[in-house]
Amino acid sequence: MQVLDHLRAIGYDVDQSDDSLPSDDPGYGTVEILDSQDIAGIKDTILEYKKEHPTHHIGIIGFNASIIEEFKSIHDTATHVMYVDEVQGLEFDAVWVLEHAEIFEPTFDNDDQAFQEAYKALIKDYRYVAYTRAKTHLVRVVFSD
């Protein structure tokens, strides 16, 4: 699946002329979607990718502090582990977006509809930023309990 097709499929209004998207590849890379509970296995996948693509810069982007902490051990000069709010304006050859299912299906303690809508809009914006950091390869990892 292509990144732009994936963004469209999950509800984003995206066209190829969008200046925030890399334009050097009309297909704009590939997307893998993984459901996982295996952090070690995902780390191994990233390390294998690094071996196969030694000149690529890799972004590991997370929404959740505990998941980010699990990946800090593989941070180096070509592998950047960052929170989603730190990556706007950056690009990487390959990106692993580490999501936790709970973030996208939150349970709210109150019935404040405006707050809930604002939260959902913020998460949608963050996801767009995270997904569009990849120049050639995007891997979306959804962790579940």
Give descriptors for this structure.
five-stranded parallel sheet, alpha/beta, Rossmann fold, single chain, globular
Whole-number total of structural domains: 1
At the fourth level of CATH, the homologous superfamily is P-loop containing nucleotide triphosphate hydrolases
Number of strands: 5
**Element order, helices and strands?**
HEHEHEEHHE
Give the class from helix and strand content and strand pairing. Answer: alpha/beta
Q: What is the makeup of the main sheet?
A: 5 strands, parallel
**CATH domain class name:** Alpha Beta
Overall mean pLDDT: 79
- What name is given to the CATH topology? Rossmann fold
Poorly predicted segments: 16-28
Biggest sheet, strands in spatial order?
1-5-4-2-3
| Rg (CA only) | 15 Å
Put the structure in a nutshell.
The protein has 145 residues and is an alpha/beta fold. The chain is built from 5 helices and 5 strands, in the order αβαβαββααβ. The chain is globular.
Ordered list of secondary-structure elements with their pairings:
Elements: H1 3-9, E1 30-36, H2 39-52, E2 58-62, H3 65-71, E3 79-83, E4 92-100, H4 101-104, H5 113-131, E5 134-143
Parallel strand pairs: 1-5, 2-3, 2-4, 4-5
